Amino acid sequence: MNKLLRGFAVSFLCVVFFAGVPAADAYEEGAVSNSGTIKGKVSFHGEIPMRKVIPTKDTEVCGGIREDPLIAMGSGNGVTDAIVYIKEMQKGKKWVKPAKSPVLDNKNCRFHPPVQVIPVGMNVAIHNSDPVLHNTHGFLIKSTMFNVAMPKQGMQVERPLARPGIIRVECDSHGWMRGWIYVADNPYYAMTGKDGTFTISDVPPGNYTLVIWQEYMGSKEMPVTVKARETVNVPFEVPK
């Protein structure tokens, strides 16, 4: 067998072998006994950082110059719309997913909701509520996850979310628009409420890495130990 044919044979065998190997990081559902709970609050103290927005077109829909907060605040210095999740969770509770594709709406030249969590493998339903062209573009780091031109009001298109991670959403027609989607690879996540609190339940006892993400600060990691039938409290303050 010459070198060229030998190379083809090796490549073919590699493809056949790895095609039959299940993904090592796929989440496995199962019964959880003696589970614990992670609770906490994400807070911020100080002057809220702002982002100046200068609409340059379609101002009858998009509005005029404004300043948007980079940290959404609720009561008691609580940070809303922060995402908290357990990193690289391989096995645990049953994953209850939404019955319908979650919606990302372009409305008044803003994304609604501005931050959301969608399980990996589901679709996002991208909608245009405005009477102007939007081009909704989602990036996972530098890779495009979806890129949808929506010239008509009421138009809706679904796109799959095949890879986990934080997706930054922009509009190629209105460069100031910004939104975020965390594509979760396991069900151990939560978004902070109006008072900044969160709860992650049914956690198997063990040592984990908890990730707190917020638009202004990005991602921060912290170790957490969950004990059987106990609740661990994890306060976190967004750094200034």
Description:
The chain has one domain: Immunoglobulin-like (Sandwich), CATH 2.60.40. By secondary structure, it is mainly beta. The model is unreliable at 1-24 (pLDDT under 50). The protein has helices at 3-19, 59-62, and strands at residues 28-29, 36-43, 50-53, 66-69, 83-86, 91-92, 103-107, 110-112, 115-119, 123-128, 134-140, 143-150, 156-160, 165-171, 178-184, 189-191, 197-203, 206-214, 218-226, 231-237.
Could you name the CATH class? Mainly Beta
CATH fold category name: Immunoglobulin-like
Give the overall pLDDT as a whole number. Answer: 91
Helix content: under 10%
The separation of the N and C termini measures 65 Å
Tell me the number of structural domains.
1
Global outline: globular
- The Rg value, from CA coordinates, equals 21 Å
Tell me the β content.
over 45%
Order of helices and strands: HEEEHEEEEEEEEEEEEEEEEE
Identify the CATH homologous superfamily: Cupredoxins -  blue copper proteins
Structural class: mainly beta
Task: Please mark out the parts with pLDDT under 50 across 5 or more consecutive residues, or reply none.
Answer: 1-24
* Biggest beta sheet attributes: 5 strands, mixed
> What's the number of helices?
2
Strand order of the largest sheet: 9-15-14-11-12
Task: Write down how many β-strands occur, each being a DSSP E stretch of 2 or more residues.
Answer: 20
CATH-defined architecture: Sandwich
Summarize it:
The protein is built from 2 helices and 20 strands. The protein has 240 residues and is mainly beta. The protein has a 5-stranded mixed β-sheet with strand order 9-15-14-11-12, with no helix packed on it.
